[in-house]
């Protein structure tokens, strides 16, 4: 896909890599959590943040895989500061345990990257009996963010540095169920479609960032929240769709981004000074873009927030 890239107002494009968009940026003194960082663009995000001096906490379901990635990063960047902590987003109990351990660790938190996700899975329920894509891609990140917010607020205040929350959405947010979110049948197997359920979860992720941004502005906090579409990347997200995976491996390799290109927008939104003070925006190819009508619906974002609170209560 890279050779189709046309630079936007940021000076970057779809062909820009994570290293390129963060070149010259000093991340020393910053601490970031990256969920789902044991594979794909999550791994590249963790590596590039570490390369720029950020203290990275890899929040991963498979700790062994996470430790292997950590070892590879340290081999390349001996001075890197990288931790691995267990986080299973299909379990709210695991989310609470992770947040409790993190908040007790004494680590500050400048940047939270809600990266982890699954794509177009068959109908399944999470360990909390929530439709799995909605639970993993959105609801557990909603809970995680809320549990870490006091840490982020304190860090932003004490360091006098802007905190940033980065939610990985997708262009698939444009193709959810009718109405955007199935509030009355979120867990129903009837009417379930794996692609539309993925779109719903990614719309929710986008609306989450928008509502956070609104609340932060209302409270006068020095924290921003944005969402993004990383681009089409052939990663293990395709594991539930052999046809899509086959396409991505053959013809798709000329259309899809590489992993370093796929991590670029995340790293740009997380670190770049051009994004200082920017909040409640949707990014593609390291530039501000326009989301769908549902993605710009402030009332829908508020409704989703109120819907999510009881689902994540202990």
From TrEMBL:
Alphabetized InterPro entries for the sequence: NAD(P)-bd_dom_sf, SDR_fam, TIC32
Family note: Belongs to the short-chain dehydrogenases/reductases (SDR) family.
Record field: compositional bias (Low complexity): 1-16
Protein name listed in UniProt: Short-chain dehydrogenase TIC 32, chloroplastic-like
Region (Disordered): 1-20
